Amino acid sequence: MQNCGLFFTSYNGEKQLFASGFQKVCLGLFMVAMLAAPQVLNLYHVSVLNLMMISVIAAVSLNLLTGVCGQMSLGHGAFVGVGAYVCAALAAKGLPFVFCLLGGGCVAAVVGMFFGIPSLRLKGIYLAISTLAAQLILEYLFLHMDFLTGGANGMAVDSPSLFGFAFNSDTRMFYLIFAVTTLCVLAVSNIVRTRSGRAFVAIRDFYQSAENVGVDLFRFKLQAFATSSFLAGVAGGLWAYYTMYITPEQFSIALSISYLAMIIIGGMGSVLGSILGAVFLTLLPEALNMLTSFIGSYAPDISSMTAPLKEGVFGLTLILFLIFEPEGLVRKWRLIKAYWKLYPFAY
Amino acid sequence: MKRIMMTMALATAMFLATTMVATAALKVGVLSDLTGPTSSVGVPYAQGVKDCIAHVNANGGVNGEQIEIIQVDYAYNVQQALSAYKRFMSEGIVALQGWGTGDTEALVKFVSRDRIPVFSASYSSHLMDPSAAPYNFTVAPDYSTQGRAGLKYIKDSWKEARPPRIAFVYPDKPYGHVPLPAMKEYAVELGFEVTGDEILDLKAMDATPQVLALKQQKPDFVWVGGTTPSTAVLMKDASKQNFGGTFLVNIWGNDENLHQMAGAACEGNLGMQAAAVYGQDVPGMALIRELTKDQPQMTHYIRGFVSTLVMVEGMKMAAANGGVNGESIKNALESMRDFDPMGLAPAISFFSDDHRPNMAVNVCTVKEGKMTFLQTVSLPREAKWLGK
Asked: Do A44 and B102 touch (CB under 8 A)?
């Protein structure tokens, strides 16, 4: 949605990612606020931000595949796992951070493309089941390929370092994760605007029409799987570096489902939506935890009853979102913007 | 719109509320699964932890200083465990009572970097090796040691001339796989004949295929590496199929719930435990009865109690040595020798190069619907078994 009175006099002006000066100023302020955040927030809040940003990369990458290209995936958690394990294995060999992170992304991209091959023949729920199989196969490999993954015992990963500077604290990791997240989000925002991105949207909207206008379905579907899995692998690499210990349990089907929930709640097909969804679903359990702790501190007897309700509240929130805001948080955000644009004249 | 703004303001206020720092006390983080997939055992374990802290505080605390617990229910989600740990750290904890395998392993490097001793209920063998996990402690020996002790118990009670036959049933999960190589190696060493493996999911509703395969293998004993629900399914189906072998169940697969789920099918089978059974004739049981107002508790409750008791003893030793912080607690624990948790668990010693609490495992059975203690089996503290 563009601001009122924003007119373009050139194609270049229209093509800009951030078309208005106001948007650029807001983004600049947001970046400054993010850069200052670790200096004013405590360890816990910085950690939540780190986890949130890793989820943002994974959610944005899944949205590129599912929201933009229409290819349902239930194996995204496993692709994140591939990135994490490859990154950890490369780091164990003493390779530099950037190489490990990109290596994790590249191997995840290859794996994603392999499991994306059925997408030429399958779509919708059938593709979902095929990617679910990818999730199960990869989980099996994580557990049984002891020589590569450490098997049931998992793998330890050292903190990353760049040009001799070790990212060995939450604050330092924050800046690293923030930089990578910014690059990933910018990359996806631009991919959506390229020829490939438009082809993805055409495939999502109606694959036969897309084919009729010359879109090579197989090529672009595989491209979507590769790009999405590459970014998932990068998210996995960051997760491995941040947690410093990875085990097969961390990349289960539950992770894939939670990424899917993020893009559904945030808004399918929207980069901003995936960010909002990732932020919302990372914060929701924290907020519910605080609420139950808060109740528990005043009424310990009631807290034993309210604690089990937490999971129910989590599920209920998801259902209510789907009923009352099926287009996700991004629509809510647009409504809020529209409200303030017209304020104080509501109509 | 106003409602949205109000909700956002409330959420922000709650988020920032966690930054509030409370008054000085020895703070201990308690990471619990109260609502997640392991909550049926996580709730009694966490209650044991809380009751022990309340008991210690009521009896002078740690050299007069009270212990304050900060409990977070992380619902067995590693990401939530990480943020809970950071919350504990920002509130200044000196020690942590952890819980499951996933979170304990995910926190291994963090706790060693931050020098926070952790007592968890994850008994993977690699967590017992201080060279890999210097700040990790447990009050139960690792799954491999538990399995070896179970095998030794069987072998010592075996009367026939032929070697006993054993099969392994476990979920295709890290928890199921971790002790397998150690157990199989020790089984061969003791003269068992290993007949094979069967996979049984933790959420299995039916174990007929596994039981039929076991009937073909004809094992005398079956080691079960599942949890109580999957073990109950296996035992019930084994009973239906008239399977004649005896089950030897890992620590999380046998507790007071097993009889409720499996009924008579679990009678006479064997299970490994690391703490006393409620009502067992040990010195500390009078205190447990008093604290629980004579309401029977699961053995996990007692293990949570013991875990906290040992941690508090480490804190007291650290206080006597000068001051209580993560590093001093760890050093104190590593000098702990044969600490007796009132008989509620076998005596506990830690060493700087060996964090196995002991090599003793309680073997239990179900008799007339009640979990019953049979014998404590002790193994030598072999260095070659550390971490394996």
From this structure: no
